[in-house]
Amino acid sequence: MKTLTHEMRRRRGLVAALRGLVATAVAVVVAFALPGAAQADTTISSNGTGTNNGYFYSFWEQSSGATMTLGSGGNYSLTWNTGSQNVVAGKGWNPGNSANPVTYSGTWNCNGNCYLSLYGWFQNPLVEWYIVDNYGSYNPSSGATKLGSVSSDGSTYDLYKTTRTNAPSIEGNSSTFDQYWAIRQAKRTGGTITVANIFNAWKSHGLTLGTPNYEILATEGYQSSGSSNITVGSSSGGSTGGGSTPPPSGGGGCTVNVTAGDSWSDRYNLNVSVSGSSTWKVTAKVPSPEKVSATWNVNASYPDAQTLVATPNGNGNNWGLTIMKNGSTTWPTFSCSTS
After folding, report:
1. N or C terminus of the chain with fewer C-beta within 10 Å?
2. pTM to 2 decimal places
3. 218 near 96, Cβ under 8 Å?
4. Is 24 exposed, middle or buried (0-12, 13-18, 19+ CB in 10 A)?
5. Where is this region: Disordered (predicted)?
6. Are strands 66-70 and 42-44 parallel, antiparallel or unpaired?
């Protein structure tokens, strides 16, 4: 059976090694966390795991070049550059729960080799798994043997399995374990992942699923640059993230999903879709020195030079904007509320 390239295996090992080392520290953090207590945004630039506003989080980078901000509820943002070499970060639950779907929304801007995926581990047997919704220049299934495919949540996921031997994991630095992959054909940044559909498909191909460990909606970058702003919700996991969670991307019952449009040397387009309400208000915070130069199918106002407020103009819930780069290609962050 073919396996992932040596380069990709090596970086998985680095991530797993860190997670194994911090397992004890996580237990201590969880023991003293106050479930559900609101916390101010926290910026992280050193490796670690823990809980934040009722959610489990993980941040790891190989070298300095990335920053993670933990927002309210299931929100986090990440910016990284090539200096980080390899970075993996996200929010979710510990343990995860395959019986509950995961809903997420936000923005994800990848320049090079990056993933956006629901990521986690099983134990007994030990398995590392990925449900990849979006990726950049490198398809994570490269070098793997395809098992089959499954239709779920509006697209087809291709299924793969690889095996690691004497490799670092959450159980130690010399473990043998399988990796399970589900790669979405129609890339997206936001929506619902019906986790049970993927897990059942893996099982139908003879793969064994053990006891859930943690589960995060992860942004990953390898020798690349980019940014993300993700809000995750819906899953009902264990002690760090159990129970009902608010809808993603701003509350009030609306969700905003942003995808890339056309791009030129001096500007780029973003396509925006709003669901959950017809009386929405979307606020986009545009990083300086970028500027919004045009919008379509929406009423637009500008409280300040770096903020766009969009409301419906009778043309439905799909609209867009053009942003002048001015030397930068970091996407805005979006939030949604209802009136």
Report:
1. N
2. 0.60
3. no
4. exposed
5. 227-255
6. antiparallel
Hey, how many other C-beta atoms are within 10 angstroms of the C-beta on 10?
12
Residues 6+ apart with CB under 8 A from 251: 336, 337
Are 225 and 132 in contact by the 8 Å Cβ rule? The answer is no
Nearest to 39 by CA among 59, 54, 49, 56: 54
Question: Which of the following is catalytic: 61, 215, 220, 290?
Answer: 220
- Per DSSP, the residues of 145-197 read EEEEEEEETTEEEEEEEEEEEEEEETTEEEEEEEEEEEEESS--SSEEE-HHH
Q: Which of 61, 128, 215, 290 is catalytic?
A: 128
Q: What is the distance of C-alpha 193 from the center of its chain?
A: 12
DSSP string, 299-324: EEEEEETTEEEEE--SS-SEEEEEEE
Q: Which long-range contacts (CB under 8 A, 24 or more apart) does 69-72 make?
A: 69/41, 69/42, 69/43, 69/44, 70/39, 70/41, 70/42, 70/43, 70/44, 71/41, 71/231, 72/38, 72/41
Task: Say whether 128 is catalytic.
Answer: yes
Which tokens in the block code for residue 157? 């996921």
User: pLDDT band at 291, cuts 50/70/90?
Assistant: very high
Among 145-154, 169-178, 275-284, 314-323, the least confident range? 169-178
Average pLDDT for 291-300: 94
φ and ψ at 219, to 5 degrees? -100, 130
Helix, coil or strand: residue 116: strand
38 or 174, which is more confident = 174
Per-residue burial over 97-114, b if 16 or more Cβ lie within 10 Å, else e, is bbebbbbbbbbbbbbebb
Tell the burial category of 305 from Cβ atoms under 10 Å away from its Cβ (0-12, 13-18, 19+): exposed
CB-based burial, 138-162: b 16+ in 10 Å, e otherwise: bebbeebeebeebebbeeebbbbbb
Provide the Cα torsion 131, 133, 138, 141; round to 10°: 40
Clarify whether 7 is annotated catalytic.
no
Cis peptide before 287 (omega within 30 of 0): no
Can you tell me whether residue 22 is helix, strand or coil?
A: coil
Q: How many CB atoms lie within 10 A of CB 40?
A: 8
